Description:
The protein is built from seven helices and five strands, in the order ββαββααααβαα. It is mainly α. A three-stranded antiparallel β-sheet has the order 4-3-5. The protein has a two-stranded antiparallel sheet with strand order 1-2. A hairpin with a 6-residue loop joins strand 1 (11-13) and strand 2. Bound molecules: zinc ion. Zinc ion binds next to loops.
Amino acid sequence: MNYKTDISEDKLLCHLCGHLHNLTIEECEQCGEKLYQRYPNSLALTWGYVLAATLFLIPANILPMMVVTAMGTDDASTIMQGVIYFFAHEDYGLGAVIFIASVVVPVFKLAVLYYLLLIVHFKQYNKALRGVKLFHIIHLIGKWSMLDIFVVALMVSMVQFQGLATIHTGGAAIAFCLAVIFTIIATQKFDPRLMFDKEIIIKEENNESRS
Ligand SMILES: [Zn+2]
């Protein structure tokens, strides 16, 4: 499939408002945004942050999210044990919220980012339009990403509410926050216009000569 892109038409597309410009223009005439033909080093940076986020998701799920100390004994629980705990106590709503916010959403966002990166690498132009739709979805979810971290705080306060002795967050909380933050940065670094481009290498060179 062949798409007309700003590059193939010798134009410059504003990534923010979609206004088309001549190549010599450096700032968008419509919204004032600094124009990049493609974000500098978009692929390398996106890969880096996506891999880092994936790596941190592992300790986030293996390490304890919270440690409850009652009567001298430590009781540590991971995210999934927390979810199971709430389901076992028939707190289905809370269990579902924690499961969606701390497992489904982060994994979905990373899966989409991998998919988009692979579309670019394997030049799957026929999937580019679907890719843009998915990109908009994770961009939208990104605005709610702090919900994931909020859920951690919620879990801690819920258990505290139930009258247990001492409670503190485990290593998983930090790993989880880092995974969420790296995913947000990766989404910002990815340039969806790359999915429509024929020649990745030429574009990156253009970028460097422009900056
Ligand atoms: Zn603009």
